[in-house]
Structure formats: structure tokens, C-alpha cells
Amino acid sequence: MSESTLEALGGNAARPERFGHDALVACDNLVRIYQSGSVEVQALQGLDLLVDEGEMIAVVGASGSGKSTLLAVLSGMDAPTAGRVRVGRWDLMAMQARDRVAYRREMVGFVWQQTSRNLLPYLTARQNVALPLTSTPRRHKAARADELLDLVGVGHVADRQPQEMSGGEQQRVAIATALANGPQLLLADEPTGELDTTTAREVFDALQTVNREAGTTVVVVTHDPAVSGLVERTVAIRDGRTSSEVLRRDTDGDVTHEEYAVMDRAGRVQVPREYREALALTRRVRLTLETEHLGVWRDGGPR
User: Could you tell me if 177 and 303 lie in one domain?
Assistant: First the structure.
């Protein structure tokens, strides 16, 4: 039933709730297709993802799985081909070029893997953080920049240029810069990919601080298993779709990680390769409804 039909029926007709209506980020059957010469490349093939406000999640997957494409779409740097994607009040499928500029300025912050892409080399840390503050009075810019640098633990480099900082300090200044306009969503694409283990943990601690103290929702794409093991939820992408989620639970100091397969809205589940190989599951499987669980049997298996 269409929305206009519901309106015609009057106030007593209840509107159906849309998928992810109460989430900050809602991707519903998201598709992104690139044209490479005469070949179509399907980077995202019906991806579903919900991220609640105030959440911090890690997104993992093999190269080419669609992780960076997802961040490009969520950041407004790339436009989806089909499906539905919403961040806060912004419908990314319906945005015009002018809307994208406002969206990227007000709603999202972005941190690249390459430190050289995040900061202007001829500006100090304080000046880099203050640069996006176009609507802030000049007398307040430095104070805001210092506040953010202190938040991520690099207040001591405020007067240094990027070449005078370590890689970890540069990334933390980049985080502060991404937060300058108070975005609700912070996206980080492999922010620790070029750093050693100790420095990577400092950068990740800064992201956790931003999430915890500033209340910013954080989505981190990473290959680092140490990083994905520290968040409450890790989402795995395979072949352009969400395939599994790992939930981290802390019960009386006992930390456990439990993996779940993700079922999309069409009822599709990606069975991990090691399961398929172990049970010789191929093109066709038989399903049986058991008490409180579903049985999956290989073709020709026991009946």
C-alpha cells in the first residue's frame, strides 16, 4: 500500500516501518556498479547494514570485497547505483551535488589510510584542524582546534607541521580535523594500515575516545585483526554483501567473541567457505526445519 493511499485512509492507518528506521546508518539492498571499459564491476551487490547512533564498528573483508566502496558511498564521495542508503536525515540516493557538499561538511568526517591525504603539509596541526571551521569566529577557531587535539592526545604537536610529527601523531591530528565540524558519523579507511602495532593501538584508542566521550558514531575499515577484536561488533563483507558479524561480549571480565551469519531481507545467508568445503556443500542443498534450528544438508546427503 502506497504512502498516499495510507494518507487517504486518515490518521488511523499505521504506516509500515521502513528497514532501519531507527538506525543512524541504514543500507538496504545497496548496489554500486562501476563501468570499466566495456566491463561492469559490481562492487556492492545488495548489501544490508545497520549502524546505531553512538556505535563503533569494524568492517573487514578481503581486497575487492567492497569495504572501501561502502565508505565512499557513506561519505558522499560516491553515489549508489540502486537500493536505499540513509545516514541520519540524509537520503543518499536522492542527493544532488549541492546536497552532497552540505552533507560532507555537516554530517560525516573521513580519515584516509595515507597520512599525506589527511593533512596540508604547510599548515600546523592547529591550523589543519581549524581549516574546516569556516563558520566559526576566528577568535574561537584556535580554542576549538586545541580542544580536539587534546581529546585525541596530541595537544603537544599543535604548532608542528606534519613532517615534524610521527605517523601516529599525524593520524590522530587527522581524526581531530575530521571532527572539526562536529559530524555525527566518523569514517576511517584503514587508519592504522601504515603504522606499527604500538602506534596503531594509540590511533585506535583515539577513535575509541572520540566514540566514548564525543558520542560520535565510528565505522572503521580494517585488515588489522587486533583492531576488529576490540570493538563490540565486527561486520564482514564478502562479494559485495554483508556475510557475517562477530559480537564481542564482556561478562564479568570474561571477553568472548561469537560469530553470526547475516541473513539479508530476502532470506539469503552466506555459508562460510570452510563450512561448505567440510560438508561438500555445492550448488544445491536441502533444508529441514528442526526444533529451534534449521538443518542444511548436501545434495544426496542423509534424509
Answer: no
Q: Which residues contact 170 (CB under 8 A, 6 or more apart)?
A: 115, 118, 119, 162
Contact 171, 203 (CB under 8 A): yes
Q: Nearest-CA neighbor of 186 among 23, 22, 25?
A: 25
Residue 52 has pLDDT above 90, yes or no: yes
Name 257's bridge partners.
Answer: 248
Measure the CA–CA gap between 92 and 134, rounded to whole angstroms.
Answer: 24
What per-residue confidence (pLDDT) applies to 147? 96
Same domain for 174 and 74: yes
Looking at the domain assignment, is residue 212 inside a domain? yes
User: What nine digits make up the cell of 188?
Assistant: 576511517
The per-residue pLDDT for 16 is 57
H helix or E strand, kind and range, residue 242 = strand 241-251
DSSP letter, residue 218: E
129 and 20 both lie in a single domain: yes
Tell me the pairing of strands 217-221 and 185-189: parallel
